[in-house]
Input
Amino acid sequence: MELQRITVAVPAALMTPANHVQYLMGKASGPNDVYTEVRYTDPLGMGYAVSSGLWTAEQIAGVMNPDIISVMQEAGRVPEDCDLDYVAEAQYVFEFFDVENCIGPVDPLKITAVAGVDPQAVLAVMQLEAIPVPDEDEE
Output
């Protein structure tokens, strides 16, 4: 089974739907485990949660295939607390690129996934910058 590194940028407003997709695809142990904080911004100041991890081709295809919901229901593979309306919402706004084909900045109305070995290079292509965390002494 070949794995591919995928970096995903999720606008703040889409964190809950994106979490349910991660959960359905077996990439999270619960429906709110992955996207919990906005830690990046785009050039317009819009906030994003970001994840980066190894995905199988089946998982990537599943996120992009609206029929995966019924397939997983028929197979009895939908976790009880996974909200399929959220999954459908996330799938509707999901876009996938290879790092060579991604032209930033990301769309603040889309969940953007980019395949690339180096997550920092992918974030640069997406034109996302980390939000500085203030030192405890500065507060």
User: Anything to note?
Assistant: The CA atoms of residues 63 and 91 lie 6 Å apart.
